[in-house]
Amino acid sequence: MATLAAAVLSPAVHAQWPTTCVDLNDIVEAHLGNDGNVAIYQRVFGDQAEQACQNDHRDDVRGVFAWAFEDSTQSDLADLPDLAWPTGCVELNDIVEAHLGNDGNVGIYQRAFAGAAEFACRGDHRDDVRGVFAWAFGGTTVLVSQDRPESVAAGWSSVAVGGFHNCAIRIDGTVACWGQQADAAGGNFGKADPPLGNFQTVSAGLDHSCGVRTDNSVACWGSNVAFRDRHVGQAIPPSGTFQSVSAGYFHTCGVRTDGSVACWGDNGAGEAVPPAGTFRSVSAGANHTCGVRTDGTLSCWGSNRQGQSSPPSGGFQSVSAGFQHTCGVRIDETVACWGSNVDNWNRVVGQATAPAGTFRSVSAGLHHTCGLRTDRTVACWGSNTERGLDHVGQAMPPAGEFASVDAGHSHTCGLKTDATIACWGWNGHGQASPPA
Asked: Measured on CA atoms in the order 153, 203, 336, 345, is the torsion positive or negative?
């Protein structure tokens, strides 16, 4: 039930693809003179930042970045070392295609800034390029002089999977939810009835949902009670501005715009008492929570009965807290999982046994886990049954290319690269039947 970020933009407009010829010197100055690529790559990739950055840039620019990473605090061009500063003229079209055609700026800004990614990216680029990034982040700007489909202005920009319901953000920024409405006790608290307005991110928990609005405030809807009708307030967010939010079973956590984490709701195991410090992201599970700090290390708090709150050392890009296990994507793009590897009947099902290979993201559910590989296919591992009996296939993803994936109780959904949603697994409440 990981939180997925999505930029929300104004209604679709047409923008001419930029073809202005610019000096490479201007490009390099922008990249070194602010919190641009050098610092952002370091935040996302740690000690592999230079290699990742060079892989994303033209040969005639790479030499400059070698200097930048050796002394990235030195931004005064007068202090440049003796090297051949590139002065070639390039088409903006070439630059933009490079940014969209790999895991370059768009994906990296999303990793580093979550819901504030588009704002940060547009702030770092020239006015005549900013309209292009509107399309890149949200699909609402259709570029007319290149082969960019008009259909990207419709569809979905993210999907979030809960226990037995889901919520997703449309390209226009509105939220739609489907699946179970009632909670475990039969009460209808409206967890699948989102409020009006536009949202940047959305997250679905067990019996409640939350999202970050375009003004960076948090709105929640659904149940405010836990077991035995205890009022815990998981759907009553605090005031203030947030980058992202994650709805767990009976608690919720979010990263504020200052990087600190705030949690609310049930705190029976300490899952709603975050540590001090600044974070890139946070993920709320059943009764534990984990977050990626700004230095790339992980911190977890709450229940640790199955080892789910004892993360490994090292740098991580992302983390996802499930029922009693946790998984994260390391800096080298491999997946590490820890915590329970069994179901409720103590049968080993393997939700914490990650496959080999490289991944863009990972999502931990009840007794299964799914991840988006770097080739954009989905891999899942763990249980394929509902309540340990019926085979429902929540860990059997369909073929095709995906932009994201999110694992729930006994079902999974993913956002495909054509902006449609696919779901698989148990469909007892219609949760695996997404709207068009």
From this structure: negative
Q: What is the mean pLDDT of residues 243-266?
A: 95
Average pLDDT (264-286) is 96
pTM of the model: 0.70
The separation between CA 426 and the C-alpha centre of its own chain, rounded to angstroms, equals: 24
Torsion from C-alpha of 85, 90, 94, 98, nearest 10 degrees: 10
Would you call 381 helix, strand, or coil by DSSP? strand
Q: Which residue has the tokens 């588009």?
A: 118
> How far does Cα 206 stand from its chain's mean position?
19
Which pair of tokens denotes residue 99?
Answer: 């940014």
C-alpha distances in Å from residue 30, one per residue of 76, 100, 121, 317, 422 = 12, 18, 12, 25, 40
| Confidence label for 25 from pLDDT (cuts 50, 70 and 90) | very low
DSSP label at residue 147: T
pLDDT digits (tens, 9 = 90+) for 79-138: 433 434 344 444 444 444 444 433 455 665 665 555 555 555 555 554 444 444 554 555
> How far is CA 376 from its chain centroid?
14
Name the residue among 138, 135, 127, 137 with its Cα closest to residue 174: 138
Residue 160 per-residue DSSP state:
E
Kind and range of the H or E run holding 329 = strand 325-330
User: What is the C-alpha to C-alpha distance for residues 101 and 107, in angstroms, rounded to an integer?
Assistant: 10
| Radius of gyration for the alpha carbons in the chain, expressed in angstroms and rounded | 22
81 burial level (CB within 10 Å; 0-12, 13-18, 19+): exposed
Two structure tokens written together for 23: 């000096």
Q: What type of residue sits at position 414?
A: G
Q: Among all chains, which residue has been given the structure tokens 């394929």?
A: 384
- In the chain, the domains with their CATH numbers are 17-78+90-143 (no CATH), 156-425 (2.130.10.30)
DSSP 269-305: TSTT-PPSS-EEEEEE-SSEEEEEETTS-EEEEE--T
More confident residue, 404 or 30: 404
